[in-house]
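Let's do one together. I've listed all components of the complex below, 357 residues spread over three lines.
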Amino acid sequence: MGKLLKVLFHVNEVEKWDTALGNITNLIKDVGQGGAEIKVVANGPSVAAFSDSSRLQAMSALADEGAVFLACRNSLKKMCSGVDVCLTEEALPPFIKVVPAGITEIVRSQSEGFAYVKP
Amino acid sequence: MGKLLKVLFHVNEVEKWDTALGNITNLIKDVGQGGAEIKVVANGPSVAAFSDSSRLQAMSALADEGAVFLACRNSLKKMCSGVDVCLTEEALPPFIKVVPAGITEIVRSQSEGFAYVKP
Amino acid sequence: MGKLLKVLFHVNEVEKWDTALGNITNLIKDVGQGGAEIKVVANGPSVAAFSDSSRLQAMSALADEGAVFLACRNSLKKMCSGVDVCLTEEALPPFIKVVPAGITEIVRSQSEGFAYVKP
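Okay, and this is what the predicted structure of the assembly comes out as:
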C-alpha cells in the first residue's frame, strides 16, 4: 500500500472550516483510519471557530479518528485584543493543542515531508 | 535544464478556474510543452465548471498540451445531490478523468514529488 | 536546531497581503532573522500592491530582515493592459525583483525544497 501519507491542512479563514473538515472526512474514508497522518493548523481569524460548539463537535469526531488540531498562539492572542470573541488557551477543548506560531508549524511540517493543502 | 518540473493545481472554487487556467497557460509558455508534468485536481464546488462549454474549451486546449484534468467523484456526487447542476461521469468529456477522492490524489501526488499550487 | 527552513509565500490577491506580511513577521519573530529563507512570489492582481506606499514600507522592512520579494512579469504586463494601475519594472523599488513567470518560480522553488504557503 506504499508509505504512510502525511498531510497538513492550513485553515486561516473561518469560512473555510466546512471545506477543510469535509476534505479530512473524505480523506479518512478513502485511505482508512490510520492511513494518513493528519495535522490541521489554524491561524488567523479561523481560530474563532474554536468557540463554535457544532464545529467543535465535528473536529472532535475527526480527532477521535486521529487528526491532530493545532491552534496558533499568536492568532489566539490577536483575537483577544479585538472586540468580538476571546478564547483563552485554557478554554480550548483538550484535543486542540496550541503552538507558539502556526506559520512555523506549517513550514517545518513540510520540511518533514508533510503535504500541504489549503482548503 | 535540470529535472522535469511536476506540479498539481488544486481548484476547489468555481471562481478560481480563470486564475488556474491562466497560471497553467503561463507555465507552459515559460517552460515549453513537455517541460512540466501538470495535474489539475478539481474538488468541491469547482467541478460545476465541467458543465461550462467555454471553460471546457480552454481546459481541452491545455489538455492537448499535456495537462491532466482530474475530477473528484465525491464532489460530483455531492453536486448531483443539490438542486442546480448534475453532471454524471459519463457526461464528462474524455480528457477529464475521475478519481475516487480528489483530496487523496492531492496528498499522494505531493508525496510523489509534485509541487502544490492553489490558484 | 535542525536544518534551515525554506519557504515560499504565494500571494495572488491584493487582499491577502496583510495576512501574508503578518505571517512573515510572525515567522521571523519565531525562528529569528536568518532562521528561515523566505521568498514571496506575487502574481495575478496582487502585484497592484507594489504601488501602495504603506504596504511597500512593510515589505521593505521585511526585506531588510532577509525576505526576498519577487514580482511576476506576466502579471505586471497584464495590469498595464488594464485601465487602473500601471507599474513599469523600472518604477519598482530595488528590493523587488522581477521574474519572467511567477508560476514557474513557485513550482521550481518547491522542487528545490521550499515549503509552500498560501496566505
